[in-house]
Amino acid sequence: METSARGSDYQIYRQVISQVMQNQEQLPSLPSITLQLRAALRDANCSPARLTQMVMQDPSLAAMIMKTANSALYTRPAQAHTLSDAMRMLGTETLHDLVMFHSVKSLFVMRTPGLKKLFVLGWQRQAQKTAVCILLTHLTHFKPAYLPVTACFLGELGSLAVLSAFKDQAQVPNVTDYIALCKEFNKPLATVLMRKWQLDTLYIDITRQTGDWTLNTGPVLTPQDLVHLALYHALSLFSKVDDLPPLTAMQAYEKLPDALKPLDKKGLLACVSERENAIREYLGQV
């Protein structure tokens, strides 16, 4: 439905979001601990012991790292019993992603029942796509792994930022209007936040191009390809979207290793659908 055909409430919601985009101080900044951890993860001289100490300052982040390391989403010969074990098993790239996931979730704290309900909806959408991307990145051995996973996660930032616009408003959108607002404002708001946080422009470019199923990204598998494959499967598996183009028509599919190309009865990658339970388990941990 076009915005012009929507009710007056929707037009008010659009105005509220537009005002936030013009006054970016209303949007959250990354916390200092996130900036410190990201810097430490990039610092070759930062010892594992020092990094573990920094993570332990945030018990909820430490718990997420432990759960992720022992998740069925990752095929590992042994379980992690300590935080140090978990961090070593996951590696720097995955830790980089987890720090960002945790920080973003803690930034968008909703106070009212209506906004909390919408936050859960937005976070689930973000986490579903990211979980599939983690799996595909792992299966394809794509390097550096953090690029597609972080891009996938950041691409849905705008869905959460939409809610920030209403934290001081008496009236909040219903689910239908929230979904419509996300479709309209997710990419612009995600771009605004990524620029505010001074993140790599590659993430902005990927966000802008996501959803263009016919996009030509060249002869080799790229982060954009993995983001598209992740979005496709998240929409099919969790949102039950049934009007997507055939997976085999996508350039990203053609660039997958032959071992990952077999499809299930629904036309999805068998390597993904066979691990749906592991993906759902992971979603319960983030």
TrEMBL record:
It comes from the Bacteria. Residues 27-213 form the HDOD domain. It holds the Pfam family HDOD. SUPFAM superfamilies: HD-domain/PDEase-like (SSF109604). InterPro entries: HDOD, RNase_Y/CdgJ. Transmembrane segments: none annotated. This is HD-like signal output (HDOD) protein. The lineage of its organism: Bacteria, Pseudomonadati, Pseudomonadota, Gammaproteobacteria, Cellvibrionales.
